[in-house]
């Protein structure tokens, strides 16, 4: 049952990241877009009519270069997946505050925890798994410049926008250790009983 709850929260967060990004990206394209690198080819300029003779829809899309929609969508979705996998792998866990009864050795161990700790301990796979979606998103973003559909600044802006929205969505629905921010908290692994608890208790 907990897996079902976690999947439900994940889908909510994922869709929130996706749709918020789509709305913001489209608004920016309409109000602040610029010409794409291939605009002249889309325009099909006529010296006779002194106007573009291409498909009006293609021409209009050629005026909406900034920010890159493919880049923002890639990082708002795959970036969200990367954050989720990193949290589940323990890569985003903040330093643990030592308990009052902790020994000096425990205090030192807790204080020295960093996101690179898994590397030191030989836990490389969580890092590799978490970075893989970001590599795919980066490939999608770079391909837009290779195909001369976007300027480099379009891609950079779109990538930053998408990953920022993904981070905000993740933090709104999950804690840094990957626990869902839900009023339902699993208590009994055998009986599947749940109780309500404040989100602050999971932060």
Automatic annotation (TrEMBL):
Keywords assigned by UniProt? Membrane, Oxidoreductase, Peroxidase, Transmembrane, Transmembrane helix
Task: Please verify whether the record's keywords include Zinc.
Answer: no
Q: Where are the transmembrane segments?
A: 12-32, 73-91, 124-142, 154-174
**Matching InterPro entries:** PAP-like, PAP2/HPO, PAP2/HPO_sf
Q: Which SUPFAM superfamilies match?
A: Acid phosphatase/Vanadium-dependent haloperoxidase
Domain Phosphatidic acid phosphatase type 2/haloperoxidase: where? 9-170
The record's subcellular locations are: Membrane
A GO molecular function term, named singly, is:
peroxidase activity
Give the way it sits in the membrane.
Answer: Multi-pass membrane protein
> Any one cellular component term from GO for this entry?
membrane
Q: Which GO terms describe its biological process?
A: phospholipid dephosphorylation; phospholipid metabolic process
Keyword Lyase applies = no
Q: Which family does it belong to?
A: Belongs to the PA-phosphatase related phosphoesterase family.
Any idea what this protein is called? Acid phosphatase/Vanadium-dependent haloperoxidase
Q: Which organism encodes this protein? A: Caulochytrium protostelioides
């Amino acid at each position: 049952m907990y897996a079902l709850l976690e999947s439900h929260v994940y889908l909510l967060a994922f869709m929130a990241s996706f749709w918020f990004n789509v709305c913001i990206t489209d608004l920016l394209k309409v109000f602040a877009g610029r010409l794409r690198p291939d605009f002249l080819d889309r325009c099909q300029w006529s010296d006779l009519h002194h106007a573009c003779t291409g498909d009006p829809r293609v021409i209009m899309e050629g005026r909406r270069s900034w920010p890159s929609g493919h880049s923002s969508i890639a990082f708002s979705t795959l970036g969200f997946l990367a954050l989720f996998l990193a949290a589940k792998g323990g890569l985003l866990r903040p330093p643990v505050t030592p308990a009052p009864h902790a020994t000096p050795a425990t205090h030192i161990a807790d204080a020295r925890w960093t996101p690179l700790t898994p590397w030191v301990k030989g836990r490389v796979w969580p890092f590799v798994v978490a970075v893989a979606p970001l590599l795919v998103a980066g490939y999608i973003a770079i391909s837009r410049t290779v195909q001369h559909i976007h300027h480099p600044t379009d891609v950079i802006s779109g990538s930053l926008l998408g990953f920022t929205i993904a981070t905000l969505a993740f933090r709104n629905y999950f804690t840094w250790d990957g626990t869902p921010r839900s009023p339902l908290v699993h208590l009994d692994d055998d009986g599947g009983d749940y109780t309500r608890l404040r989100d602050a208790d999971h932060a």
